[in-house]
Amino acid sequence: MSSPNSVSQAVVIGAGIGGIATAIRLRLKGFAVTVLEAHHSPGGKLTEIRQQGYRFDAGPSLFTLPELVDELYQLAGRDPSAYFRYEALPVITRYLYPDGTRIDAHRDPEAFAGEIERQTGEPRAHVQALLDKSRELYSLTSHVFLTRSLHRLSTYLRRDTLRSALQVHKLDAFRSMHRANRARFRDPRVVQLFDRYATYNGSDPYQAPATLSIIPHLEHNLGAYFPEKGMYDITLGLFQLAEELGVEFRFAAPALRIVHARGRVQGVETAQALLPASVVVSNADIVPTYRRLLPDLPAPELTLRQPRSSSALIFYWGMRRTWPELEVHNIFFSADYQGEFEAIWKRRSLSADPTVYVYVSAKRNPQDAPPGCENWFVMINTPSDQGQDWDALIAQARADILRKLEQQLGAPVAPHIACEQVLDPRSIALRTSSHQGALYGNSSNNPFAAFLRHPNAARRPRGLYFTGGSVHPGGGIPLCLLSARITAELIPDPR
Ligand code: FAD
């Protein structure tokens, strides 16, 4: 590695998970790396909230493909378990339906299919066929859409890409995920369960292509994991590694402008100084990257004007008691799933009967709540922020959510809330600069969405790169880590 005084200086804008991972990779390539972060701590959306003895993961709660985190430690010659430990969840999600049906999604795919058959009568073979299809989709698409740049000719000239191109009909890109699930399953509860995967990247199962049925493969064939100390530990471990490698972090240091001249980046301007750099990587959302940091560059309007993914409304409730009927991840389904998505995507509003996700990390990590208590992360999907009257929507949603949970749990919930914090599309936008508070950049409702996401490198100015959930290959922790890998691979080694 070169010394921090080396002329090969890289500046990363943003200490989201994609920014930290890119900084590690660039440092290991030999760059002197400075990360500018607008906030006072690392992580962006992958952060935590503490209140009155409760700890909450603030953003992501479901963790797949942990090997992508391990890979960064291994690349640096470190033992991943010295920084960050995780375990497989035996029950990935507990699904609770308005009719009283309960399905536990067991880690073992056979047990999961058996549970669905027992609870709904849907033949287990149908579930197994879906998981096989999901595996096939992953093997056909991941090497094209997830792990390589879509914007380099070399990706398309590879033998595995050509093989996949010959089987493009198998991608099911021109039928919605809902239509495909309805054709596969007899029981509407099972259709609903597998439709839900569209929400994993902020999309609508009634519009998004059936190709997104790749997602159950990650969760059910490869597994869902729980970091021993909670999701924020992913950020903290990688932040520690980056610092040990010599990456310099500057907090409360927003980048104001990316400076370029004669077709090359020159550096990044902050309130204090101009940081010279031959490589600048923006981990900030692509929309404010162009609108605020590069006002003098023609913006790729087609990309920037794509519809955004959904956002979320989250109540962090410190609960005074425990609820044995809950798992770590719990879904209380809406009785009208289509109506819920119509409210979000057509009316840009909220359904009176939303699907409610309750995540209780204290089930596995008791220190996350005082003794005899639980930390509830209670989330519903929402449209992105387009100036709705959020105060009114939040007040109504809080009442609707409480009514639903109390009905389904058969006990009062509200009196047991000891403390509360709220995150909504406005505050997500404010805290992470995510355009319209979208969780996953652009939506994937369109079969061509992957091609409309911004590339990881600019043609001009040279030396300008992009990483994270709003650019290729997309949002969610695993894709942000892949984004960092693709971006770092595109950046030539320092001279
Ligand atoms: P971000 O987290 O978007 O961070 C960008 C950083 O850049 C921020 O820290 C911001 O302050 C900084 N920044 C912006 N502008 C500037 C500037 N001008 N100067 C300096 N710094 C700047 N993913 C999953 O895998 N599983 C889940 O279960 C899941 N659930 C989610 C639930 C919620 C409520 C949210 C919000 C997200 C969820 N996600 C989930 C998505 C996941 O969190 C994101 O895709 C991922 O964390 C985004 O990382 P990123 O690298 O794009 O950076």
Structure description:
- Helices cover 35% and strands 19% of the residues.
- The chain is an alpha/beta fold.
- It has a 7-stranded mixed sheet.
- α1 (17-29) packs parallel to α17.
- Residues 1-6 have low confidence and may be disordered.
- The site of flavin-adenine dinucleotide (FAD) has 36 residues, from α1, β15, α15 and α17.
What labels would you give this structure?
about 500 residues; alpha/beta; seven-stranded mixed beta sheet; five-stranded parallel beta sheet; disordered N terminus
- The assigned structural class equals alpha/beta
Low-confidence stretches: 1-6
Helix content: 25-40%
Strand content: 15-25%
Radius of gyration: 22 Å
Number of strands: 20
Could you write a compact summary of the structure shown?
By secondary structure, this protein is α/β, with parallel strands linked by helices.
Topology:
Blueprint: E1 9-13, H1 17-29, E2 32-36, E3 48-51, E4 54-57, E5 63-64, H2 67-75, E6 86-88, E7 91-96, E8 102-106, H3 109-120, H4 124-146, H5 153-157, H6 159-166, H7 177-184, H8 188-195, H9 215-222, E9 224-227, H10 232-245, E10 248-250, E11 257-261, E12 264-269, E13 274-276, E14 279-282, H11 286-293, H12 301-304, E15 311-319, E16 329-332, H13 337-345, E17 356-359, E18 374-382, H14 390-409, E19 417-423, H15 425-432, H16 449-452, E20 464-466, H17 477-490
Parallel strand pairs: 1-2, 1-14, 2-10, 7-16, 14-20
Antiparallel strand pairs: 3-4, 5-9, 6-9, 7-8, 11-12, 12-13, 15-18, 15-19, 16-17, 17-18
Bound molecules: flavin-adenine dinucleotide.
